[in-house]
Amino acid sequence: MTIVTLVRAELRRLTSSKMGILALIALMCVPIIYAGLYLWGNNDPYGNLKDVPVGLVVEDTGAKQTDADGTASTVNYGDEVRDELLKDNSVKWIEATSAEAKTGVSDGTFDFVLTLGKDFSTDLTSPTTTSPKQASVELTTNDTNSFLATTIAGNVAEKVRSSIAEKVGKEAALKFLDGFADVGTSLETAIDGANQLADGTTTAANGSAQLAAGAASANDGAQQLATGASQANTGASDLSTGLQQLANATSTLPADTEALNTGAQQVAAGNAELATTGATYAAQANTIATDLPQTKAKLTDQVAKLVQDKVITQQQADELLAALDPIGQQVVDANTKIQDLNGKLAALASGSQQVADGTATLAASAPTLAGGISDASAGASTLADGTQQLADGSATLAAGTPALASGAADLQTGILKLDDGAHKLSTGLTEGLGKLPIETAAQREKSASVISDPAAINTSAVTKASTYGAGMAPFFISLAAWIGIYALFLIIKPLSKRALTALRKPGRVTAAGLMTPGILGAVQMIAVFGIVTLALGYQVANPLGMLGFMIVTSVTYAAIILALNVWLGSVGQFLGLVLMVLQLVTAGGTFPWQTLPGPLAALHHALPMGYAVDGIRQLMYGGNLALAWADVAVLLAFMLGALALSWIGARRMTRTRTLRDLRPSLIG
Description:
transmembrane, membrane, elongated, four-stranded mixed sheet, Putative membrane protein
């Protein structure tokens, strides 16, 4: 008998009676019903949140506030928020009293309740008072209504809070900017007055100077001469003393600068040598890091040869190579630090050389500087003697008419100070006006909007599922494939024992044992694919690739359950159910598998459904085809491994039979 004959015989057995046909059709429809109903029921739950009943309680009594122009007004943010929420269709908002809301959230009339208290507006406007207080939005939930409803409630409350914060923040910012605009207008008026004052004081200063000159031009000149001569004498004496001290202090300057230059040159030479050495070491370190991959490859080859020669085991080789990875990383990190240090040494050498060049220039100029200071000291002494004689003569001249000159000088000094102050006032007011954010009304409105909501989230997706149901489809399809194959093995015989006894060809019988459920599983997957794409209308980026992957997944599951049945019979069939439950948890179809506890996360990589879910996602959403091919490779490995186990079991049956082989199966 050929494989086709064996498959045809099994199909004839399954369809030999009306009840058999009905059973086969019913079991074939199991994955279609499972995947279709689950995906239909969960197609777009977030799009139907508008039907979720939510109680809205508004007890706000409003608050009084003062506008920018000083006008008192009343505001009620609670009513404004209520009006905006009732226009929003994100959930089904239902107005209620506090008592109705309390009863409704308990008996399931409301999934949750949002309450704005009586002091809501008062608290929101409190930042402009001396007693600011944070406003609160009360959220009442009840997990007996729905746990996910509580999660939705948190998202809705956060959305309301953000909307309130943006609205109130915009109004506060607008008041702030309007206040600046009013201050700017007042400053412009003040600037005009300050400019007029400055113009008047300038005219007064000019007039006072003319008055002093006309009243006693000679006396004024004498007073100025006496004052200037006295100041010049004092300055000349101070200059002479200072220059003498400077000459004494700089007498040792040439020797000091020469010593400084010698030290700087030594430091520069040392740093240059250090930089050269650092560059050598850096080059060596870079060579080591560059050759590291090649060295690691050679070492890997040597270890592989040791494994091949059975000097060490593969596990020992893996542990040895794993222990080398941190060393390689340490070498790379050390090279990075050495290269950074080499750059700093080069910069240090360059900087110290610049310092050495500067000290050399200073040492060369030091003798000339010291000589010039000594000559200046002698000249200052002679100048002091001359200014003393001039001061004595001008004092005698000024003593003749002090009263008139003194009065005119005092008047002029006062008016000049007033003029200086008026100009400083005008300048300061002008600069202050330029620093104020004075804008037009439209600009202030736009600025207030940005201040109240300064950041926006721009989301981009590499791939994207069209709906929630499309997002869950890979998981439900993979699970439906397992359920479908598991159900088929309730009526399909894993292996034909008559064929094993008659033919004694375990390979042919094993292939026939896989082909029957494989063909039926492929039909199931084609039907599920039609439900997903046609009935539910989900978009598939790679339809042929996804359909082929689904068929490979179904055949892989058939090979696994076949092996379990061949070796363990009814117990193996039961283990197929256990494996389905385990994969239901570990496949990562709902939450990311990384959120699983450690042992379950390890099972994610050890069981085939996780790879099936990932492969369908890649092909359905237009993801990475290389990852999809990797998933295919893993599934084929599972398939071939299961087939090999089935062949070994079939081969055993051709030689010996156990009591378990002779007992009737509990299933089928």
